[in-house]
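Support request from a user on the community tier.

User writes: "When I paste my structure tokens into the form, the page sometimes reloads and wipes my input. The last time it worked, I copied everything first. Here is what I submitted, just in case something in the input itself triggers the reload:"
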């Protein structure tokens, strides 16, 4: 039994994790933020807890789960070896090949000339990714060969993303709707949570640069029946087996970022943690005991199947001026309590800090994830946007079309 859980991280995802784990356990969050109850500044290595749940990718990639396990702690989150799936897209692509998982054709490069000549051999659209971590912003998808060439130069020279861009992965462009599937893995077995849809571009109608995610919804209408089971059987489990063959015991979330192409589902990427802001909608739908599920996975003993409510959830990210570039910070956030008082609205705090007057001020790019719950996506959407409407600070921006297409498709299949 995990009576006390330590969540590592300090964003909206960790707020959602703390809130749902908090139904069945005492939760501390490190470092958390002033908007997340239970936040402590104690480093994770010094926290006493029965279970550690690591939220973000960066501490996983740099080995936090290994350090905690070395001192006998129960940890939900892969070691540095497994986290390379996200830390290096070149490694991920190699594992996908070993596991026989369909993905976009690609090559990895660390020199400019061969990268440019491969790019010129492709029909387009062109996809250029940093191999290393870039907070969701390292991917360019474009129909312009010139823009793609410039991006390859900027990434490989280190000017655009530092070390993360010193290797690039160039891919063929695929098209189709995207869906995120979160598999909770115990090293050998996996169970899936409810699928979700992210909205990665900053602007309405999927325009502007990629971000970490501007909003998400669940359920996802129109998915083929059996899609999630197929993803587990033909993608996630073979991936766990390929990792095991390399001596990697993967205990944590495998986040499958899929594109549903005319040729079937293709894996765009694996992440090694819950999505942010997808966690804010997916975790809220769980009706079984999340603490018990993650503890079983962490112990290598998955036994239970999670259950989900039929509710729809929509989350809208309220971002600070400048995001996904450097954000303006320090603005007083108005209306948080008013938003929370609305029916079916929950607000998760990400880039916030305590202001001089005691209220919360903006302190990052993605500031809040305003989440609505309803019987339908249309109802959940309406509630989320009612919540957004109650909140204000100078320069706040958000998309106005989160879950709009999904809500329109709802009930039509
Ligand atoms: P990633 O970080 O690899 O998931 O990429 C971020 C976003 O870029 C994805 O959610 C897609 O919208 C887009 N993307 C990535 N790879 C491709 C591809 N091969 N073809 C088309 N779009 C892509
Ligand atoms: N929302 C996308 C991600 O967490 O990577």
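"...and here is what came back when it finally went through:"
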């Amino acid at each position: 039994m995990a009576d006390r859980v330590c969540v590592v991280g300090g964003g909206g995802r960790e707020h959602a994790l703390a809130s749902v784990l908090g139904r069945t356990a005492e939760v501390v969050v490190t470092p958390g933020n002033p908007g997340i109850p239970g936040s402590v500044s104690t480093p994770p290595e010094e926290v006493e807890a029965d279970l550690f749940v690591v939220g973000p990718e960066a501490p996983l990639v740099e080995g936090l789960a290994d350090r905690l396990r070395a001192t006998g702690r129960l940890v939900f989150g892969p070691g540095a070896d497994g986290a390379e799936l996200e830390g290096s897209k070149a490694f991920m692509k190699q594992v996908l090949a070993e596991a026989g998982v369909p993905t976009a054709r690609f090559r990895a490069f660390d020199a400019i000339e061969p990268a440019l000549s491969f790019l010129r051999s492709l029909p387009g659209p062109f996809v250029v990714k940093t191999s290393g971590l870039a907070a969701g912003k390292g991917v360019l998808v474009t129909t312009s060969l010139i823009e793609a060439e410039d991006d390859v130069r900027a990434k490989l020279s280190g000017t655009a993303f530092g070390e993360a861009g010193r290797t690039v992965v160039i891919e063929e462009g695929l098209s189709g709707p995207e869906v995120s599937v979160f598999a909770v893995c115990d090293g050998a077995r996996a169970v899936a949570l409810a699928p979700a849809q992210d909205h990665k571009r900053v602007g309405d109608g999927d325009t502007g640069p990629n971000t970490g995610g501007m909003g998400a919804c669940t359920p996802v209408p129109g998915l083929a029946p059996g899609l999630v089971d197929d993803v587990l059987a033909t993608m996630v489990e073979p991936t766990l087996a390929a990792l095991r063959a390399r001596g990697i015991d993967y205990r944590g979330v495998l986040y499958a970022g899929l594109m549903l192409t005319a040729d079937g589902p293709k894996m765009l990427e694996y992440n090694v943690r819950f999505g942010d802001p997808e966690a804010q909608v997916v975790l809220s739908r769980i009706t079984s005991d999340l603490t018990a599920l993650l503890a079983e996975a962490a112990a290598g003993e998955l036994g239970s199947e999670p259950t989900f409510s039929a509710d729809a959830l929509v989350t809208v990210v309220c971002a600070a001026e400048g995001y996904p570039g450097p954000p303006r910070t320090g603005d007083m956030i108005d209306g948080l309590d008013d938003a929370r008082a609305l029916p079916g609205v929950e607000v998760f705090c990400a880039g916030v800090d305590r202001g001089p007057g005691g209220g919360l001020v903006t302190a990052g790019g993605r500031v809040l994830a305003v989440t609505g719950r309803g019987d339908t996506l249309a109802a959940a959407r309406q509630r989320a946007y009612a919540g957004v409407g109650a909140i204000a600070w100078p320069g706040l921006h958000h998309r106005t079309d989160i879950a709009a297409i999904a809500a329109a498709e709802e009930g039509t299949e």
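Agent notes: The reload is a front-end session timeout and is unrelated to the input. The mean pLDDT is 94. Residues 104, 127, 129, 139, 141, 171, 173-174, 178, 200, 210, 257, 268-269 surround adenosine monophosphate (ligand 1) (CB under 6 Å). Escalated to web team.
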